[in-house]
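Appendix B, record 7
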Amino acid sequence: MQVLTLTRPDDWHLHLRDHEQMRAVVNDTARQFARAIIMPNLVPPITRCEQALRYRQRILSALNPAYSFEPLMTLYLTDSLSVVEIKSAAESPFIHAAKLYPAGATTNSDAGVTHIDKIQSVLEAMQKYDLPLLVHGEETTSSVDIFDREKVFIDNTLIKIRQQYPELRIVFEHITTTEAVDYVLSENAKTAATITAHHLLINRNDLFKGGMNPHHYCLPVVKRERHRLALLNAASQHPGKFFAGTDSAPHAQHAKESACGCAGIYTAHAAIELYAEAFDQSNDFTNFEAFMSISGAKFYQLPVNQQSITLIRRSWKMPDKLSFGEQSLIPFKAGQNINWTLTNSNEK
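Structure tokens (predicted):
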């Protein structure tokens, strides 16, 4: 395969940050994708519709006017979020989901849900008003091994949510394990999952090659090779249940290369090309368009994009670093050759 032509994709899981940092990265996504689900874990988090709409306007104001890009907004669930807010979100043409962060699970999740029982009325309202639930699926109890957090969350929480709310649309975000793949495949069409490019391309050995690599550290953390292969099989062989969500998460270089080593991998600069690299490993592009461009739109009950994109097999070198406001940002695969090139940007 030397040329790939497909419907322009959407990114169903994206972190943009805010203000100067957001302005530094938003056009990387807008250049490639038609739409993106925008994560609400700002500081403070986006917990009200009016906050989401103001954030949307800041994103639109930062766009290159040549690009045709639509941010799809979300709310951040907390123990005290009101049912009224859920109803307003479901009625808004600009808010498309609400995100469940277990408290302490990842970046800016401290205000997240402390126990699923605290949001029963909210989940009931989401099912009633058909507002999708996006789940960061990790158990945060300190005694649970970090490599087991996803599986334990399925067993302790996700199965319970699905049983109690059978009509609730659920997206199991950035899955990382064989167990998550099996769970999604076992459920009906109300359950789907996003898969990142980086979880398709690296395993936990890549965290330690040449020393600890903070630019390969994300949450959920990358897992064993058998899990990576299970994700690749899910993405390439099961259209409809899995779709692209980059979880691209920018952090300044100094924040990654620090005692904290913030969790997050920045893939937005070349997300579509990176997904093509992953599918190349499976040697099967049959379902590439479904994974990138069709399945997510159908799950979110949105029209499939009308534009198309073209990728060609032509090598180029990922920049060593990118501008991130007044700071620097290290992209995924920095300084390495990428074998696919996107030839047409998302222009109006």
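Remarks on this record: The CA atoms of residues 279 and 285 lie 6 Å apart. The chain has a mean pLDDT of 96.
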